[in-house]
């Protein structure tokens, strides 16, 4: 059988490598799946079901050969907020709708659009999510009891402070043992999953040294059921769809960003290229099916994908195997998982938060002290103190406004004249002075995009143009790459003002997009086709033919050459630029 696409060149040796990497990633995913689920406010088995179903489907239908899908830390604040505000059943509906949105995004080839989200926004909300995850595990680390869960950061911190008298020294010891294992295992046993060692060592320590003194998964959430996940039908009504569409959009957006970032990381590690639209479709299918079995939203997991690659994966089979391994563990060892202390899960999530915090990129961007720094800080603070929805919306708006401001500053309108000392008499702004100008022909360079953000700058320059007394105005717009309808309206208004003052307008170097727009709006007809030129030299010759040489006979403001010289010699060179 000949394998193609993501399975190109597949062989028995490749399957052996996928089997090994799938087993390793599956073992890594088990504690993470439970930890992410608990932190999201739902039962731990739902995280395992998500790891199984979404992990297999994302590998089957996604656009990356190495992507490992499942519950991730980035979703924790969003899912917890949805559970607290709407309940678990509505969380399933939000995940289901997010899956549909992701499929539609892939079908309509919108995968590339997600890449245009500004980096300060993604770093800002990622760092904010990391702070939320870390702070959310403080109570489990300390073993506090009676702690209420709130949607926002400050009430959660106030709740922790209020419950500090209930701290449990045995929980702290358990958490410290797990943390020590997480730190030391990569140094001395780099090929062994640190999270698994941390959970095993801390769980056994708690069971032997101080049995019954720490809260476990079983005592907090009940025993984890063994066996296959059961079908969990969701009740879709129009009212519920309307209620959950906004959370679904946030889940879809974050899931799309996370999965494509993970796929890009995989590409960088392996030299392959993923299909972004197919990846979105695969993520969408996984999120449509997973809620039907009680699972929470899933996306590509960067750390697990990297582990998959480092373990020798060669194809999506490793991701499928990883889901099957988790399924076997759930079926065979679920009762033992119920004995894991919550204090053992806290350091794992704290380490996840530390690793995803983008602290180096955050600090580097702050050092720039630019507009991007402001976007970064605002997005970060809003993510921590309000909601991710608000943070992303405000961050994007700030980024757009900053971009518009920067682009508007690139538009320049300068009066220029040919420089006889340069090759081909290049036209330059420094040639225009109070003592060196042409009283009849005004040549102006317009550079930069002519759009709504630059409208005020162009208006101001246009008023200066219409206030002059030259009989011919030549506009060189070869460096105007883009023009929107606002820019077109301002440009047309300038042409009409100049015509009203009996000034002849000549245009040179117009690019295809502005030409097409001005043609559709009729502005080219107002200018006149015989006044539009590709080359500056042709435009200058046309301008010279329009002036009255006798009026310049005594002029001392020689612009190009002496006007009497112009009347005797051949036209200017065609290649003036």
Descriptive notes:
- The protein is an alpha/beta fold and 577 residues long.
- Helix content is 61%, strand content 6%.
- It has helices at residues 12-39, 44-61, 76-86, 88-107, 111-114, 119-136, 138-142, 153-162, 169-188, 194-209, 217-221, 238-270, 276-289, 302-310, 317-337, 342-355, 359-367, 371-385, 388-408, 455-466, 485-500, 512-521, 523-527, 536-546, 563-568; strands at 69-70, 299-300, 412-418, 427-428, 441-447, 472-479, 504-508, 532-533.
- The strands form two sheets. A six-stranded mixed beta sheet has the order 4-3-5-6-7-8. Strands 1-2 form a two-stranded antiparallel ribbon.
- Residues 553-577 have low confidence and may be disordered.
What is this entry, summarized?
This protein is an alpha/beta fold and 577 residues long. The protein has helices at 12-39, 44-61, 76-86, 88-107, 111-114, 119-136, 138-142, 153-162, 169-188, 194-209, 217-221, 238-270, 276-289, 302-310, 317-337, 342-355, 359-367, 371-385, 388-408, 455-466, 485-500, 512-521, 523-527, 536-546, 563-568, and strands at residues 69-70, 299-300, 412-418, 427-428, 441-447, 472-479, 504-508, 532-533.
């Amino acid at each position: 059988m000949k394998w193609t696409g993501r399975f190109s060149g597949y062989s028995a040796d490749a399957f052996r490598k996928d089997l090994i990497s799938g087993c390793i990633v599956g073992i890594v995913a088990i504690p993470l799946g439970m930890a992410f689920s608990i932190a999201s406010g739902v039962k731990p088995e739902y995280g395992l079901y998500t790891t199984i179903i979404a992990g297999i489907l994302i590998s089957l239908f996604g656009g990356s050969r190495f992507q490992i899908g499942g519950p991730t830390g980035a979703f924790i604040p969003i899912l917890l907020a949805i559970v607290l505000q709407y309940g678990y059943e509505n969380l399933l509906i939000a995940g289901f709708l997010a899956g549909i949105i992701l499929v539609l995004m892939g079908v309509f080839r919108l995968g590339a659009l997600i890449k245009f989200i500004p980096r300060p926004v993604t770093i800002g909300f990622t760092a904010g999510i990391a702070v939320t995850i870390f702070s959310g595990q403080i109570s489990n680390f300390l073993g506090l009891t009676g702690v209420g869960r709130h949607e926002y950061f400050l009430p959660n911190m106030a709740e922790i402070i209020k419950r500090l008298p209930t701290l449990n020294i045995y929980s702290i010891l358990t958490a410290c043992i797990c943390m020590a294992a997480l730190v030391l295992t990569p140094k001395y046993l780099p090929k062994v999953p640190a999270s698994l060692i941390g959970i095993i060592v801390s769980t056994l320590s708690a069971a032997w040294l101080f049995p019954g003194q720490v809260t476990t998964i079983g005592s907090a959430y009940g025993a984890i059921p063994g066996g296959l996940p059961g079908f969990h039908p969701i009740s879709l009504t129009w009212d519920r769809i309307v209620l959950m569409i906004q959370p679904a959009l946030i889940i879809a957006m974050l899931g799309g960003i996370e999965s494509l970032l993970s796929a890009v990381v995989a590409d960088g590690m392996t030299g392959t290229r993923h299909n972004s639209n197919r990846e979105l479709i695969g993520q969408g299918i996984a999120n449509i099916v997973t809620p039907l079995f009680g699972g929470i939203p899933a996306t590509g997991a960067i750390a697990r994908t990297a582990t998959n690659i480092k373990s020798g994966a060669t194809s999506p089979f490793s991701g499928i195997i990883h889901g099957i391994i988790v399924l076997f563990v759930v079926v065979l060892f679920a009762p033992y998982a119920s004995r894991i202390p919550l204090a053992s899960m806290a350091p794992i999530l704290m380490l996840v938060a530390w690793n995803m915090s983008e602290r180096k990129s955050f600090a580097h961007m702050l050092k720039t002290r630019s507009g991007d720094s402001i976007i970064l800080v605002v997005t970060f603070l809003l993510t921590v103190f309000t909601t991710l929805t608000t943070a992303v919306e405000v961050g994007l708006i700030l980024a757009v406004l900053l971009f518009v401001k920067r682009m508007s500053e690139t538009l320049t309108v300068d009066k220029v004249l040919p420089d006889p000392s340069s090759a081909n008499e290049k036209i330059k702004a420094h040639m225009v002075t109070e003592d060196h100008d042409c009283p009849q022909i005004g040549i102006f360079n317009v550079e930069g995009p002519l759009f709504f953000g630059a409208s005020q700058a162009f208006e101001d320059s246009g008023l200066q143009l219409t206030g002059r007394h030259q009989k011919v105005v030549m506009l060189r717009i070869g460096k105007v790459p883009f023009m929107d309808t606002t820019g077109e309206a301002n440009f047309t208004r300038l042409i009409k003002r100049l015509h009203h003052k009996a000034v002849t307008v000549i245009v040179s170097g117009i690019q295809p997009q502005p030409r097409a727009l001005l043609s559709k709006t009729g502005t080219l007809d107002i200018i006149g086709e015989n006044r539009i030129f590709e080359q500056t030299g042709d435009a200058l010759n046309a301008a010279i033919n329009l002036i009255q040489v006798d009026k310049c006979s005594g002029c001392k403001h020689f612009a190009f050459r002496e006007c009497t010289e112009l009347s005797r010699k051949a036209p200017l060179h065609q290649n003036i630029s």
